[in-house]
From TrEMBL:
Keywords: Metal-binding, Molybdenum, Oxidoreductase, Signal
Cofactor requirement: Mo-molybdopterin
Domain Moybdenum cofactor oxidoreductase dimerisation: 284-401
Spans through the membrane: none
Gene Ontology terms for molecular function: heme binding; molybdenum ion binding; molybdopterin cofactor binding; sulfite oxidase activity
Name of protein: Sulfur oxidation molybdopterin C protein, SoxC
SUPFAM superfamilies named in the record: E set domains, Oxidoreductase molybdopterin-binding domain
Length: 418
């Protein structure tokens, strides 16, 4: 069949089939050039297999990037950017989109010069190079990493218009590494050793105290994420993984682990990463990340563009204490709730994907999600949190998020009284 006769055939088929639903959309009376005409990409050979030795996203997806909010911090070297949650699906965050949080910028560590020291209350102080670590038995685990300050700008009311900015200080990847307990066993922890000090090799010399029980339970000394070596901004070549606990404890560019008999009370666990209460007192050592969820679509950066009719609501939920067996969603600000459909794998201390399909009639919506974790904990409203903790905190805000969607499908960050 020639190109001319082929186009005539397709035009005729399009006209003959007008009004018939195909894939949920009626075929138009006017022929659609996207169907009847050969697009450019069918008329010339594409690039060969060596054009991009390291694969990159499509040129049409260049808008899917991490973004920062310049006014949040004085300088980008001690700042944060945000994962574009509204552009993602499933539970795995691509390596190039995992949010960054730095206190002294990215450390560019030469793997040939990398060393990890274990000292303090141990029988034998040890130093490992990268090849030493890779000779230990390794494990693969999928976990979320959430900054304790995720949603921190929302304590006093709706601030940032987009789930990338309200909830994007999180990623969920597969980590490959050595269980920390194996390295501690190699060094031999003395009976008095009940705490660890993890220290990073960046310019800020990041340090955090970690109780021995957690170190021996599920911590990893990781060198890979999603199958490839860590990215520099994620701690290359080695970082600590502390599942379910606040991201500041997942020390990047890990260079030293000191065993001691008490916490060190360093800067990042005294002046920061404590929760200020209304009476001026602060909670310390609030390590675990409570159950939390957010609707990613629709949301302020992902409006409804197709108009009324069938649509899919999507979101993610997670808990630092286990799994998420259930998520509820509401379309009317909490007056009525329905159980969302959970989809995909369910791992301990990992993101979980949920969906809710419904017919939108074009009227305004007040969208919320509410996570239930495997311990029975239910995600609270923001008002419930404020009753106990006030509005002076920055960290551990896991309150229910509300998006208001208008008749045009545009979403906005709002709050409703609970």
């Amino acid at each position: 069949m020639t190109d001319t006769s082929r186009r005539n055939f397709l035009r005729g088929a399009a006209l003959a089939g007008a009004g018939a639903a195909v894939g949920g959309r009626a075929m138009a009376q006017t022929p659609d050039p996207a169907i009847t005409e050969l697009p450019p990409w069918q008329q010339y050979l594409g690039e060969g297999v060596d054009a991009a030795p390291y694969g990159m996203p499509s040129q049409y997806e260049t808008h899917v990037v991490r973004r920062n909010v310049p006014w949040l911090t004085a300088d980008a070297t001690s700042s944060v950017n945000f994962t574009p949650l509204h552009e993602l699906d499933g539970i795995i965050t691509p390596n190039g989109l995992c949010f960054e949080r730095h206190h002294g910028g990215v450390a560019e560590v030469d793997p040939a010069e990398y060393r990890l020291m274990i000292n303090g209350l141990v029988d034998t102080p040890l130093v490992f190079d990268l090849q030493d670590l890779m000779r230990f038995p390794r494990e693969n685990r999928i976990h979320f990493l959430e900054c304790a300050a995720n949603s921190g700008m929302e304590w006093r009311g709706a601030q940032l218009n987009g789930c990338q900015f309200t909830h994007g200080m999180i990623h969920n990847v597969m980590y490959t590494g050595v269980p920390l307990r194996l390295l501690l066993e190699e060094a031999g922890v003395k009976t008095a050793g009940t705490w660890l000090l993890a220290e990073g090799a960046d310019a800020s010399a990041m340090t955090r105290s970690i109780p021995m029980e957690k170190a021996l339970d599920d911590c990893l000394v990781a060198f890979k994420m999603n199958g490839e070596m860590l990215r520099p901004e994620q701690g290359y070549p080695v970082r600590l993984v502390v599942p379910g606990w606040e991201g500041n404890m997942w020390v990047k560019w890990l260079r030293r682990i000191e065993v001691g008999d008490q916490p060190w009370h360093h800067r990042e666990e005294t002046s920061k990463y404590t929760d200020l209460f209304p009476d001026g007192q602060a909670r310390r050592f609030t390590w675990e990340m409570d159950a939390k969820s957010v609707i990613t679509n629709p949301s302020p950066q992902a409006p409804i563009t197709h108009g009324p009719g069938r649509m899919v609501l999507s979101g993610v939920a997670w808990s630092g204490r286990g799994t998420i067996p259930r998520v509820d969603v509401t379309l009317d600000g909490g007056n009525s709730w329905v159980q969302a459909r959970m989809s995909g794998p369910s791992f301990d201390k990992s993101m979980h994907r949920f969906y809710h399909e419904f017919d939108w009639d074009g009227r305004p919506l007040l969208l919320q999600s509410r996570a239930h974790d495997s311990t029975g904990y239910v995600q609270p409203t923001k008002d419930m949190l404020r009753e106990i903790r006030g509005e002076n905190s920055i960290y551990h805000n896991n309150g229910i998020q509300t998006w208001a969607v208008n008749e045009q499908g545009v979403a906005e960050n709002v709050e409703v009284s609970s």
